[in-house]
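ARCHIVE RECORD
Type: protein–small molecule complex
Small molecule: adenosine-5'-triphosphate
Source of inputs: curated submission
Record status: active
Notes field left blank by submitter.
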Amino acid sequence: MRALGIESSCDETAAAVVELPGRILSNVVHGQVEVHARYGGVVPELASRAHARHIQPVIEAALAQAGMTPRDLDCVAVTIGPGLIGGLLTGLAAAKGFALGAGLPLVGVHHMEGHLMSPFLDSGQPAFDFPFVALLVSGGHTLLLHARAFGEYLCLGQTRDDAVGEAFDKGARLLGLGYPGGPAIARLAEGGDPQAVHFPRALPEKKDLDFSFSGLKTALRTFLARNPEGAIPRRDVAASYQEAIVDVLTIKSLAACRAIGQRRLVVAGGVGANRRLREVLRERAAAAGIEVCFPAVALCTDNGAMIALAGLRRWRAGERDGAQRNAMARWPVERLLGETQRNA
Ligand SMILES: Nc1ncnc2c1ncn2[C@@H]1O[C@H](COP(=O)(O)OP(=O)(O)OP(=O)(O)O)[C@@H](O)[C@H]1O
Ligand SMILES: [Mg+2]
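STRUCTURE (tokenized, with ligand):
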């Protein structure tokens, strides 16, 4: 059983062909860093135009690299939300056209369920199955979920302000680094001293599993204003800032596992690529007797393969979407609970 997966919810135009249970036959990602870099963040209108330009060639490349024709596929999976509406509509229109032309069923996918599927792709790791706690950390989300079964996600905690990817991106801007900020901070932090500056850890009420990153960003701004270039090496500042983020993510994730008695933790989303997060979380989870599962680094950020796998699993469960299916800029992941037939 194979799907073409299409992703265009933010600044990656992506398509992939995936086969159950999670084998990647092709995975084409066209990024837009050069489009947005000079603005220091994603400009929605420019993103929409770039998706419209690249979506068709990206889909064709994904099929060609997999050596497949539409006849070799069982369904077309596409991200229908949440995300930037212009990009979502572009991907959905392309998916509908492709599905109609090829006589294939269409399955709309929640972008975060896509991220959640990324550790199951070509993982090479021992089979890791539901239930588990999921830490979804990306440009627009910071979520702790109790993933009880495929499609059944209960929110245990989320950010009250900035998403963690945003904290990296905004921190990078303050440090005069490029976009995207996560990889830039991680690179500068290599060899830096993570204990050089003590940035605040927002851990409101001990039992609370919510996050807050806006205070951290302000603390960095204040610190940089008081300590001009040269006072403390910037690599130490970057390492300390990264450490504050990693520390909070680790403490809350392990607290979530303890709170619901789960010994398995899945991490996904762009920030999951962070090497220091992988290192610290693995170490502290092992000490707590908790097993952690990360996706391959290249599959942490947006891609079509994760959408194809989520779509395939929904298709296998009997789900189909009609031509009237629309995109949603906002769509809480908890709403997937119990949702099966959405054709009405
Ligand atoms: N090595 C890294 N360390 C820290 N952050 C990283 C790293 N690599 C990528 N990121 C961050 O991940 C984010 C992009 O991830 P992703 O593509 O999953 O987000 P998105 O799709 O824009 O948002 P969402 O999935 O919430 O809609 C950016 O904020 C980027 O800075
Ligand atoms: Mg994403």
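CURATOR ANNOTATION: The domain at 128-294 is CATH 3.30.420.40 (Nucleotidyltransferase; domain 5).
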